Amino acid sequence: MLMLWYPKCSTCQKAKKWLDEQGLDVQVRDIKLENPSAGELREWHQASGLPLKRFFNTSGLQYKALGLKDKLPAMGEEEQIALLATDGMLVKRPILVGDGFVLTGFKPKEWEEKLG
To answer: Which residues lie closer than 8 Å to 16 by C-beta, 6 or more apart?
Structure first.
C-alpha cells in the first residue's frame, strides 16, 4: 500500500500510527515533496468511486486563497485534476492507495472496514 501524507499534519500522523498498530506494511510519500501526477489522480479518482471534490483539501490555505469553493463547480473534471496535480497542498490527505481501493482522509472506521 501507498500512503500519501504531509508529515506535519496531525491527521496524517494519526493515520500512520493506526497503520503501524495494525501491523500493515505501507510505503509513505510526502505529498508536498512528491505531488501526485494527473495520471495518478485520474486513476485514484476512478478506483475510489468518490466525487472528485473529495480529493481537494477544502480546509487548506491554498484552497481558500484560490477561491476554489466558488470556482470548482464551473470547472471540468480534467481541469480539476490538472489543478490538483500542480500542488500537493491542494490534495486531501492522507490518501491510502491499496489493491482495488483508494481512501481519502483518515476515518478509522472506514479504514478498518477496508483493511480489517
So the answer is: 3, 5, 26, 28, 94
**57-68 burial, b for 16+ CB within 10 Å, e for fewer?**
beebeebeeeeb
Here the cell at position 95 is 490518501
Of 94, 97, 102, 88, residue with least CA distance to 51 = 102
Residue 6 is inside which H or E element, if any?
none
| pLDDT tens, residue order, the chain (116 aa) | 999 999 999 999 999 999 999 999 899 999 999 999 999 999 999 999 999 999 999 999 999 999 999 999 999 999 999 999 999 999 999 999 999 899 999 999 999 999 97
